[in-house]
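One example copied in:
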Amino acid sequence: MSPAVAIARARARLATLAGDELLAKLAHGGLTALIIKIGAAGLSFLMVLMLARAMSAEEYGRFGFGFSLAMFLSVIASLGLHTGILRWWPEFTAKKSPDKAVAVLVFGLLWSAIAAVGMAVALGLAIPVLGWSGVAGLDYLYAAALLIVPLTLSEYVASALRAQGSVVRALAAKDIIWRAGFIALAIYAIGAAMSLSAGGVFLFAAAVLMGLVLLQLGRMLGGAGAPVRSVLTAKDGLELLRTALPMWGASVLFAFSQYVDVVLLGMFISPEEVGPYFAATRVANVLGLMLIAANMVAAPIISRLFHSDEHARMQQVLRMIAIGVTVPTLLAFGLIVVTGVPLLETFGAGFSEAYVPLILLSAAFGFNAVCGPTGYLLQMTGHQRAYAQIMLVTYGFTLAIQLVLIPTIGTTGAAIGTLFGLVAWNLWARHLALTKLNLDPTIFSLRAR
């Protein structure tokens, strides 16, 4: 093919895409989400960096352990409803059932609140038991338990706002304002020559995030329209929870790859050793930035296209996401490989010991990114149970690997387990999408085309 022909074809495709209202919305919404996520990634890096500077090595390790534990438990408390609302709101609005859409929205909010409070109480009751087992210095976990409630509610409210199309309002509170609050706290502590405690940071974080959630709630309920008499029966509620169960399982298992390695390390090694690995996980997570931004908009669009039987357009959307995510992700991975050591040293002396885990984790999250919105595709199209089973098997093996390797090779063993888990479930999930839906959400769809 000559260059002139290739250019002509490219221009024709761009003109076609420009005239497609849905793809234009995806591009515009994805760009908005990306801008917010880029800002969030920068703030997240500054957050963990400034906290490392404002805390002792031991307190920073405790912060990493407690923060990862609270994040993981908040996913358990979500009951999968934050994923479910991304499917149900577009589904019922597309079916011209606004009353049921609103009823489902409120149902998810109430159950998220109940489960979050229950999980916080459960952790609080478990802390003395851990103390009796000989684990000392766990008082800061009481403050971490309080953080579970706003974390759970924030995730549900943000998902509901995304489903309603309010991407900026969904993301700005937690991703921008909340993280900026951490940074302001750390700067104040450094300027006042005081050392922050993990417990104090958790109390501050919980208070600020709960305030932001309350502000978001008004916008979420306003976007739902006027209050209506509930059209959900007890049977409907049970069916929603049953449908959300595999989504919940998938969310928990994915959160496993994000947070449980730090929690496991905290049980085997000292807080001072956990700190560098926690910093490495935060840096590596930047590689998921493009995919997260795309998912912010793609999930409800996938649900709408599937329930409208527009499969060809869905593959077109998935291919656009794959291209837009892969190129910058690979560039970011190369940058981390080259600058990883000095990047880690900015957190503190000795943090570069986590360079090998950083590379392994970056490879894991990078591979997950280039595989596209595999999880959302299966969950938005009714294959949530099969998807949850895939994740259960792969992360069962991941846990086994980490429990074997962490006591022997420490942080490197934890990173190896995470790499195995993310690669295995993405390849298996892609195979399921191809066989059940004849859709490929990964970058490999370009080769098939």
In short: Residues 98-132 form the longest helix (35 residues). Residues 5 and 183 are 52 Å apart (CA to CA). The chain has a mean pLDDT of 80. The chain has one domain: 19-448.
